Amino acid sequence: MKKILFVMVLMILLLVTTACSASTSVDPLDPDKPIMVTVWHYYNGITKEAFDQLVTEFNETIGLERGIVVDAKSQGDVNQLATAVFDAANGSIGAAPMPEIFASYADNAFRVHQIEELVSLDQYYTDEELKAYRKEFLEEGQFITDHKYYIVPIAKSSENLYVNKSYWEPFAEKHGYSNEDLATWEGIYEVSKTYYEETGKGFFGLDANANYMLAANMQLGCELYSYSENGTVALNFKRENAKMIWKYFYEPYINGYFLKSGRFSSDDAKTGSVLSYTGSTAGAAYFPATVNFNENEIVNIEPLVLPYPYFKNGSAVAIQQGAGMCVTKSDKAHEYAAMLFLKWFTDTKQNLKFAVSTGYFPVENEALEESKMLDLIEKGNAPLKAMVESIEASNIMFNDFALYNSKPFMGSYEMRTLLDTNLINKINSDLSILNEKVSNGGNREALITELCSNESFEHWYNNLIDEANLILNKK
Question: For a tag on the chain, would you pick the N or C end, based on fewer CB atoms within 10 A?
Fold first, then answer.
């Protein structure tokens, strides 16, 4: 009797297993009943054009064959997109319904996942398909709470140093500088000081403050956060690292050696307010071809693109970034269709074309071969010289740098906002006070000495620690 019962149970288990296996292997798509997959992204300009072209190609080929229509919509810039997705996930009044796919950095994806469940890649990707991606790119979308991947890497970027070559070279020759002096933060500080003393202008601007804070800590040998398995972190911002960041970020801005007046540093480069800046590799197309000193003086310039700077006694570390794509949990047909599109888009043929034409890195190991990228450059897919130089500088970084990204955690979105705004807001506030006091007869050098004092540093450092802990300890 027991033997018969065992056989019956075994047969039932086999039937259930077979049914489950069959249900997951059945294609849920029907070409006669096409479904729409909405994609929200933040691409604009050249990048949007390239993305739209590939979406059209998919719709006219694979989409037509399988019954998928991809509808791509830009939500403005990356911050506007993050807000739109978060509002949709929360069901805020006036918010649009959640899209099937949305572009996201890991920080925002993690906080959205706490409200609106995302689809983990293991549900639709095989191990071999996941291994095709560069390991670091895939790991950026891994959540520390369950170690699953929730973000499909689409195109990645880092940061380069962009330089107005036409004005830099005569200045460098006059003062005995070379491109090597722009390889380190110490060198950039010294060059900027000399340039300011000669011209009264800033030499350098920093585009992504949070990236600088994160990368600088890694360059100095210490990650900014200590992670735990439950999704929380503790701040690990050592005083000696903070002092280096203060010296090579706050002090040169206060002295006028660095300058940031436009929304992007490329805007300052276009007006001749600075000669160099760090910015995303994906922004290479926005390096100005001319400098507009005023409406009557417009000068053509040549670009020089170099790897991201690091500290002289530190490690060569740069940020890897670039929003991937998340799939919202819905029904099998829409999830399957969304993943099918993303697999197609990240395949070497399509992804390499998109990446090289926009200044991004492709995401599959095969596509990252330098010869393939350079071959597309020679065929004219990267028409702007700054884009070509950015790819070449980035290839140096792939070989010689460690590429870093912080992991998403509870409060990581708010922490990134804090890192992005805290010190630059203090700089802008202190500069305003400084200029007002100088205009009222104050001694500029004495006032700058006071602002850059150790007491001022300690006040900023302790306040930042307090603000960070309020975010990280929020229940």
Answer: C
